[in-house]
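Field guide to reading this record: the first block holds the primary sequence, the second block holds the structure written as discrete tokens, and the final block holds curator observations. Each block starts with its own label. This record concerns Similar to, catalogued under organism Anisakis simplex.

BLOCK 1 — SEQUENCE
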Amino acid sequence: MTTTTTGAQRLPAHDPLRRSTERYFTVLQRNPSAYVRFPASSQQLPSILVSRTTPLGTVIGQVQATAPAPHLIDYYLTEFRQVAIDWSCGPRSCDYEAVRWLDVDRKSGQLRMTRRPYLLDYMEEEGEAREWRVEITAIWNGFTASQMVIIRFDDGNEFAGIDGSVGERERNFERFFEFD
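BLOCK 2 — STRUCTURE
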């Protein structure tokens, strides 16, 4: 049996405490350009309404940027913030970094739920806002463009529409859920 010394302890080589974690990340340098851009929308940010009962793995919307070669655009989530009402200091809105429960497909720009949003049930009980602001960055040939998207959860109705901004068109997705 092989052992190694870590501090004052001697751990066997196969000990689960010796496990390490590898994290892969991409460093994006902001380089705004007219070559890559998201379609201009009205003064309002694009928003997506999601049902609380939406199953994991569901595509809830899609973003699409334009570039001279659109099939070469890569999409990344660059900011993920939760917006809530802070009653401790009076009725004011605050936002903070949140646990990511959404992922963007790097090539297509589809937004997919990967886990249940943290504290969603608690926020509903407290009557707080259920809103997340997600910044998506598109990269083409070293040039970047970013777009902020607002994601809101409905009040738990059985039937919920999902309103996603897709490219230069607005699309309405209708999801129906069956309950036993």
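BLOCK 3 — OBSERVATIONS
The radius of gyration is 21 Å.
Residues 1-6, 157-180 have pLDDT under 50 and may be disordered.
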